[in-house]
What does this fold into?
Amino acid sequence: MSSVSMPQVAGNGLEPGFRGVICASFGAAGDTAEQQSDSQPKLDLHFEAATPQTLSELRSVLGSSSVGVRLFLSGPTADIRAAAAVAAECGLHQEEMTLLSEEAAPRAIYCPHCHSTTPTFQPAGSEVPCQGCGTALVTTDHFSRRMGAYLGYAARVEEAS
Amino acid sequence: MTVAALPISPHPAVDGGLQLEVTNVSPQTDSIVSITLADPSFRKLPSYVPGSHLVVQYGEEGVNAYSLTGSGNAPSEYAISVLRVEDGAGGSRAMHRLAVGDRVYVSRPRSAFAPASTATHHLLVAAGIGITPVLSHARAAAERGTTSSLIYVYRPGSGAHVDEARELLGSALTECSNRDSFQEVLTEQLTKQGVGTHLYVCGPNAFMDSVLDQARAAGWAEARLHSEAFGAAELDEGEPFTVNLVRSGLTLDVPAGVSLLETLEKAGKTIPNMCRKGICGECVLPVLRGTPQHRDLYLTEQEKAGNTTMMCCVSRSEDPEMELDL
It folds into this structure.
């Protein structure tokens, strides 16, 4: 999986042999996922955000596609990472996805206590209250591709014990 | 019933392995026999990953690897199927002489053709005796509730495990008896698999190369492709070269027609090795200087380009001289 910062557009995602491209953009990133796929079939999807509804739409599109397809995702990091996690669950391989991420967008912090994610602009090492359970979470640089989020952990947990 | 005496000592490749007894021998075809091995005191055998193989010792010094055909889940016996190769090194002929009650030294099962845990479907492709590891995959998939389909190419009358494959896979089995019908089926299957499918192929090298190349051309990412080599092509004898063993301070000449591994062994070096055909990856050596002429099937293209490791059983040197960290 290649991950490039905006506004650069990846040109290396389409190795020979691919059979069709799905371009999914999130938020305002509308046109950035435009990929020239010449004669190959191409499907453009645009979503406001990665919500359970839009992700399930993506899931059903992937569920009806075949091996040989490539996926381009563009938009805020948290959204495209959530979409990449869904694609991996569907069986798409990392090397078949290209991510174009807007890094200025908030990062998703995963709460291991209630399994919800909380967006934040704070850098790693800061504290944010979890949207799901209110636990004060310390943010980290530890990123999970499966969760599509950075791991958070309960602040001052050592002191409490 | 004849009880053959065990060889005097186990070969290094089966050392630390098991001593098993032949409990059943049944011919599959004119040239393929299925052999079942079990613990003489009926102990459970180690489980194995689908697609694993067993190294079996024959005679005093010979070892061969054979794919296990079971699912690998809590086995009470190990089953292998052996094709008799008349002009081989003698291993398959020795296997065909085995009778119920004979004892053999075998390794623990070794996994080199594992199913991908993230696969949503397994597309299995086998030619001839290549059915053996793929049958293991089909059985394991059925037990674990994943789906699999199999394209099996064999000459009419010489297919092993055909009935089992039919029973196991039903309509998910496509049998082909010639190249043209196989080509048609393969092309169709390669273009209609759901995105979570992984491909597993076993058969002669040229067959596997052709299947893998066609999959790549149809857009299959490398990570979806799995293959199990069972026979290496005959290699030419190569150019002579000199090897410097830096840590031992030794310089050895490797003549044409003699492998680096044989040269090192003659010089008293013990190099772990097993297949001696560039398949198993056992005899890897670190290269300090020089460009290896890679002739193995084990290292990835990336590893070969790095020129920091080589398989000394088949690979040689591009240059007149090379240095090894040995």
Strands of chain A lie at 2-5, 21-26, 42-47, 70-76, 97-102, 107-110, 117-120, 127-129, 136-144, 149-154. The interface with chain B takes residues 17-19, 62-63, 65-70, 88, 90-96 of chain A (CB under 8 Å). Helices of chain A lie at 52-63, 77-89, 157-160.
